[in-house]
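Incident review: delayed structure delivery

Summary: a single-chain prediction request sat in the queue longer than the usual turnaround. Root cause was a stuck worker, restarted by the on-call engineer. No data loss occurred. The affected request and its eventual output are reproduced below so the record is complete for anyone auditing the incident later.

Affected input:
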Amino acid sequence: ERLFVVDQEGYVYVVHDGVTNEEPFLDLTADVSFDNNEQGLVTIEFHPRFHENRRFFVFYTDPDGDARLVEFQASESDPDRADPDSARLVIEVEQPHIWHQSGSLSFGPDGYLWMSLGDGGFIGDPNKNGQNRTNLLATIVRLDVDAEPYAIPPDNPYVGVETDELREIWAYGVRNPWRITVDPVSRLLFIPDVGQEGFEEIDVVSIDDGAGSNFGWSITEGTSCYFKEEPEEPTCDTTGITMPLVEYGRGGGCAVVGGPVYRGASIPELHGSYFYADYCGGWIRSLTTDGVAVSDVRDWTNDLGRLGSITSLATDGNGELIVTTIQGQVYRLDAVRE
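Output delivered after worker restart:
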């Protein structure tokens, strides 16, 4: 019955029946840096057993510009307020630049917390983090947060491998994956990855057999080879790279935004549809997939118009679609019945 709304400056608000509580659920403004539109308080994710343990997780950039995954608990006496004394640092990742923080969180049906991290910037991945598995930048991380500060799931791909790859990494080769989601029904991981110059992409793999996937950045952007500086004889080895399920040119937008797989009650004909949007294009689209083929692609612009600079698509407590924009709007999408 409550909607939790994240503000980049460091607040989390609670909305009851369309009315926002005067006091925020969480105030992290003293701990959060927000120097550009890719920083700040980015995500909140609730533990699958939140109603029992009151635990939730936030991802933000600190005053040094580094990324922090922090656990809190809701207050035992007031469920509309977080307990500020319950803060527990889970993981911290040094960021080389102010761009490409990513920071989306999603609990999977395996009970583990999945987290995305961008390549840290700047243009063209100058630090070559995309193909570097010795730090956590440009990766999808999978953690057991029921241990302190966390444990590494035993089936993560680099567990038991005598190399320098970090054991937290589940997949790599992403640039700025914005709003990953693990669908508990299909067991598919959806990774919308913001492009550099030519293409936006959505990578989709099964959480059962996709461990260790390399999504190509900065060897590839979308399905194309990426060359920051065009060599005289360009080469591009795509061996072992998992190509995106969906890509579109930047003429139709500039930054893909991932959403949920819809399973609400309001629009049953769209059950199983994955929703995504574009920050610059302001449009919303949906598709269905088994992870291999795409069908029933729909563009909802004629129905919804262009909603502004979309930052997130999510669901409320009833599984209905919620859309937020950088202009400050929070929309709920519903079916129109004659």
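Verification: The longest helix spans residues 50-53.
Action items: add queue-age alerting; document worker restart procedure.
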